Amino acid sequence: MKKILLPIISIIILGLLFYKGSQMRWAKLFSPGELSLAHAELELSGECDACHTKGKKLDTQKCFECHDDINNLRKSGSGLHGQELEPCLDCHSEHHGRNSDIAYFDMTNFDHRKVGWPLDGMHKKLRCDVCHESDSYLLTKTACIDCHADIHEGENGEDCAECHHQDSFKVE
Ligand code: HEC
Ligand code: HEC
Ligand code: HEC
Ligand code: HEC
Ligand code: HEC
Ligand code: HEC
After folding, report:
1. Which of 19, 92, 108, 124 is most buried, by the most CB atoms less than 10 A from its CB?
2. Ligand 3 pocket: which of 119, 142, 147, 165 to mutate (most atoms <8 Å of CB)?
3. Which residues, in sequence order, are CB contacts of 91 under 8 Å at separation 6+?
4. How far apart are CA 168 and CA 130, in angstroms?
5. Sign of CA dihedral 71, 75, 81, 87
6. Among the atoms of ligand 3, which is closest to the Cα of residue 139?
7. pLDDT tens sequence across 84-106
8. Which residues lie across from 52 on neighbouring strands?
9. Which atom of ligand 2 is nearest to the CA of 37?
10. Are the beta carbons of 103 and 92 closer than 8 angstroms?
11. In whole angstroms, what is the distance from residue 46 CA to residue 122 CA?
12. Which residues are paired to 104 by β-bridges?
C-alpha cells in the first residue's frame, strides 16, 4: 500500500503545481500588458480576477474591495469621487507597464470645482503642493480649521466659513 501512495501523492502535487503554473502563464498570455507598480503583485500571483469578472470583463466595483476609502468618499459625496464623474477609465487605465501613471488627470488645467471644493480668492494663487503635501491627492483636511489656526481660541466656534471667505480673514 505504502509503495503506491508516494507516487500518487507526487503526481497530485505535480499536477497542482502545473495547474497553478499554467494558470499564471495563461494569465500572462492574455494580458494586454504589464500592470503598474502599485498592482504588480496581482499580476505576479495571477490574480486577474481581483479586477476582472470570471467572464474576463473589467469590473470597477471590484476596485473598492481594496480601496474602501474611495468608496466611503463616494458614499459621503465628498472629494472628487463623491461627485458626478466621467468614466473611471478616463483617469485610471491599466496594463501600460510598471512605471505607468494609473491616476492620470491634467494637473495644469485641473478644474478644482470637480472635487466639490472650489478654490477661490487667495487659494487660487497657491501652488497645488502647498495643500497637497504628500504623494496622494486625497486630503483629510477639508475644513478651514484643519489648515488655519483659530485666533479666536474657540470663542466663535469651528465653522470659520460662517464669517470668513477665501479672499481674506480681515473683516470690515
Ligand atoms: C488592478 C486591476 C487589474 C488587474 C489585477 C488586472 N487588470 Fe486587466 N484591466 C484593468 C483595467 C483598468 C483595464 C482597462 C484598460 C483600459 O481600457 O484603459 C484592463 C483591461 C484588460 C483587458 C482588455 C479587455 C477589457 O476587459 O477591457 C484584458 C484582456 C485584461 N485586462 C486582462 C488581464 C489579465 C490577463 C490580468 C491578470 C494577469 C489582468 N487583466 C489583471 C485592470 C486590471
Ligand atoms: C487586491 C487589491 C487591489 C485591487 C482589487 C485594486 N487595487 Fe488599486 N491599489 C492596491 C494597492 C496595494 C495599491 C498601492 C498602495 C496604495 O496606494 O494604496 C493600489 C494603488 C492604487 C492607486 C494609486 C496608485 C498611485 O501610483 O498613485 C490607484 C489610482 C488605484 N490603485 C486604482 C485602482 C483601480 C481603478 C482599481 C480597479 C480597476 C484598483 N485599484 C484595484 C490594491 C488594489
Ligand atoms: C487651499 C488648498 C488647496 C489647493 C491650493 C489645491 N487643493 Fe486640491 N484639494 C483641496 C481639498 C481641501 C481637497 C479635498 C476635497 C474633499 O475631499 O472634500 C482637494 C482635492 C483635490 C483632488 C481630489 C482628490 C480626490 O480623489 O478626492 C484633486 C485631484 C486635487 N485636489 C488637485 C489639485 C490640483 C491639481 C491643485 C493645483 C492646481 C490643487 N488641488 C490645489 C485643497 C487644495
Ligand atoms: C477625473 C479623474 C478621475 C476619475 C474620472 C476617477 N478617478 Fe479615481 N482617482 C483620481 C485621482 C486624482 C486619484 C488620487 C490619486 C493619487 O493621489 O495618487 C484617484 C484615486 C483612486 C483610487 C486609489 C485611491 C488610493 O488609495 O490611492 C481608486 C481605487 C480610484 N481612484 C477608483 C476610481 C473609480 C472606481 C472611478 C470610477 C467610478 C474613478 N476612480 C474615477 C482621479 C479620478
Ligand atoms: C462668528 C464670526 C466668526 C467666526 C465663526 C470666525 N471668525 Fe475670525 N474673525 C471674525 C471677526 C469679526 C474678525 C475681525 C475682528 C477680530 O479680530 O476679532 C475676525 C478675525 C480673524 C482673523 C484676523 C484677520 C486679520 O488679519 O485681521 C483671523 C486669522 C481669523 N479671524 C481666523 C478665523 C478662523 C481660522 C476661524 C475658524 C476657526 C474663524 N476666524 C472663525 C469673526 C469670526
Ligand atoms: C487644505 C488646507 C486648507 C484648507 C482646508 C483651507 N485653507 Fe485657506 N489657505 C491654506 C494655505 C496653505 C494658505 C496659504 C498660506 C497661508 O496664508 O496660510 C491659505 C490661505 C488662505 C487665505 C489667505 C491668506 C490669509 O491668511 O489671509 C484665506 C483668507 C484663507 N486661506 C481662508 C480659508 C477659508 C475661509 C477656508 C475654509 C472655507 C480655508 N481657507 C480652508 C490652506 C487651506
Report:
1. 92
2. 119
3. 103, 104, 105
4. 17
5. positive
6. 14
7. 888 999 999 999 999 999 998 88
8. 58
9. 26
10. yes
11. 49
12. none
Residue 99 and residue 37 in contact, taking contact as beta carbons nearer than 8 Å: yes
SS3 of residue 150 by DSSP: coil
In b/e form, how buried is each residue of 8-43, taking b as 16+ CB within 10 angstroms?
Answer: eeeeeeeeeeeeeeeebeebeeeeeebbbeebeebb
Ligand 6 centroid, distance to 166 Cα (angstroms):
6
In angstroms, what is the span from residue 127 Cα to ligand 6's centroid? 12
Dist CA 101 CA 56 (whole Å)? 23
pLDDT per residue as tens digits for the range 112-162: 999 999 999 999 999 999 999 988 899 989 999 999 999 999 999 999 999
- Ligand number nearest CA of 84 is 4
